[in-house]
Each structure stands twice: as structure tokens, then as C-alpha cells.
From TrEMBL:
Organism: Methylobacterium planeticum
Keywords: Hydrolase
Name recorded for this polypeptide: MBL fold metallo-hydrolase
Domain Metallo-beta-lactamase residues, every copy: 148-212
GO molecular function, one term: hydrolase activity
Length: 287
């Protein structure tokens, strides 16, 4: 609506990140607990809650970045506590898109993003990979696209572009909701590069001698607890993946250059033919 200003009071509160999982909350003081750790897909800290402000997190968790392929940058923290996802910045002629976020961005990392042209659009696959989206939104004010199904997890953010199942926020970059791991879990497909940023829909174990080569692949409802997806959840995954012509599959942790649609569909078909499981499957056995 013209002249409408969204309520900004909550976004003026300071932000805190959980040391156990990296989930950010806005609160008038250090939060009493973390809703992400209390979710069934995670575990609570064994020695009590610890929350860091942005400056404290920046001091504790160094931020690094690298251009993995022309126009695709990865940002990560090392060392880091919590889940520790990576952030990806994808450069396009129509503007830059951020997908996922690392636990905290240093000031130097934010300045580097600004030097690359900032961010026109921002999204994430699911709340485990929200990371420091709050920093990116506060600094660059991008369109924030998140599935409506996961809106309940976005209290620290201002969602400007909610979507249901499919959205193309920039030409050639497609968001597709898979559900499964979370109700709003989504993947990002880069059509021109044929890369699928799959979030936590899939997990890989990488070759110790080649950080881009996956050895195994698996799919989980809950990684920490080893819970498989249901048959209907796998069918939905298959319906989404079958429409996307990808030759690389990148998670928030492992950019697997040697796994594409054929191997992913073979994994799902194998589980649908027997029973769902969460065990790693050798990638070579799916070819």
C-alpha cells in the first residue's frame, strides 16, 4: 500500500546469536533460551545457554571468503561453534543474490560484499541456515524472500517477499520449496550455471583430498538425530529435483561438483523402492 510503513519496533532491538546453534534473535536483553535448539531437529546445550552480541560474535568467530567459481562467493567462519553454515553470494547482471548466511559476518566481509555490489535479493533454504541474515538485511536492505511455511522462524527479520512454492526473484535464479526437512525448506537453482543450492535436503561426505568431490550422499529429516524422511516427503523432493537440470549440488557445507540430478534421483528412487533411511550411500553406486 502506498505510504504504508511496516512496524519496525522489533527490528530496532539488539540481535543475539546462540552459541550452541547460531540462530539469531532480537531481544531487549540476552534471550532466556533458543527456540531452534529446543526444536526436535536439534539438541539443547549441555552446559546452559550462551548468547553473543554482534561485536562479540565477530571477535570470537573469524570470517573468511573465497570465489569458488566466477561470480559465486562463499563466506564462512572458522573456527566456529554451532551449526556453522556457509553463505553464498551469486552475482548476476540484474544484481546480486545472497543465499544462506554464515554465523557472523566480519566488518571486512561486509565491506567486501559492498565492493561486489551489495545484495539486491536475499534468501535461505531453512532456519538452520539463516545464520546472520540479520546483518545482511541491516546493512544492504535487500528484498528478503522466504517461504511462508517457515514464517514463524523469521521474527528477527523483515520478510518483504514471501512465497508459496516457486519464485524467481532474479532472472535465472529460481527458489523451489521442497518441504521435508522443514515445512518451508527450499532450494535455489542457478539455471545458467546448472548449480543446485540444496540446503539441508541432502548431505555429502567429501573426499579428504578434494574438497569439491563428494564420496557419499544421504537425505535426512533430522541430521543430528539421524531421522529419515517419510515416503511422501521423498516423493515431493523427487518432483522438485526432476524439474531442475543441475550438474552440481551445493549444501551449506559442501559444494559437491561431481553430483547432479541423475545421482540425486537415483538415491531417492532407491529409497522409495525399499524404505527411507538416513545412511550415507556411496555416490559411485548410484551411477
Amino acid at each position: 500500500m502506498p505510504g504504508y510503513l511496516p512496524f519496525a519496533g522489533a527490528l530496532a532491538l539488539p540481535a543475539y546469536t546462540c552459541d550452541n546453534c547460531g540462530f539469531w534473535q532480537r531481544h531487549f536483553e540476552a534471550p532466556p533460551h533458543c527456540p531452534m535448539c529446543l526444536d526436535a531437529r536439534h539438541v539443547v546445550p549441555q552446559d546452559g545457554w550462551r548468547f553473543w552480541t554482534e561485536p562479540e560474535a565477530q571477535a570470537r568467530f573469524p570470517c573468511h571468503w573465497q570465489e569458488l567459481e566466477p561470480g559465486i562467493w562463499r563466506f564462512w567462519n572458522e573456527p566456529v561453534s554451532g551449526i556453522g553454515p556457509s553463505a553464498y553470494l551469486i552475482q548476476t547482471p540484474a544484481g546480486n543474490m545472497g543465499f544462506e548466511a554464515c554465523p557472523v559476518f566480519s566488518e571486512a566481509a561486509l565491506q567486501h560484499i559492498a565492493g561486489l555490489g551489495g545484495m539486491a535479493v536475499l534468501s535461505a533454504s531453512h532456519p538452520h541456515s539463516y545464520g546472520a541474515l540479520v546483518q545482511l538485511q541491516d546493512r544492504f536492505d535487500p528484498e528478503l524472500c522466504l517461504p511462508a511455511a517457515d514464517f514463524t522462524w523469521s521474527a528477527a527479520l523483515q520478510v518483504s517477499w514471501p512465497y508459496d512454492d516457486v519464485l524467481e526473484p532474479l532472472p535465472g535464479l529460481e527458489l523451489h520449496r521442497t518441504a521435508g526437512h522443514f515445512d518451508g525448506h527450499a532450494v535455489l537453482f542457478d539455471r545458467s550455471r546448472k548449480i543446485l543450492f540444496c540446503g539441508d535436503a541432502l548431505k555429502f561426505e567429501l573426499d579428504p583430498e578434494d574438497a569439491r568431490r563428494a564420496l557419499t550422499i544421504s537425505a535426512h529429516k533430522a541430521f543430528v538425530r539421524g531421522v529419515p524422511l517419510t515416503t511422501n516427503e521423498l516423493r515431493r523432493y523427487r518432483d522438485v529435483f526432476a524439474r531442475l537440470d543441475f550438474t552440481q549440488t551445493w549444501t551449506p557445507f559442501e559444494p559437491a561438483a561431481n553430483c547432479g540430478r541423475a545421482e540425486v534421483l537415483a538415491l531417492i528412487d532407491r529409497m522409495l523402492a525399499t524404505r527411507p533411511h538416513a545412511a550415507p550411500v556411496p555416490l559411485d553406486s548410484l551411477r
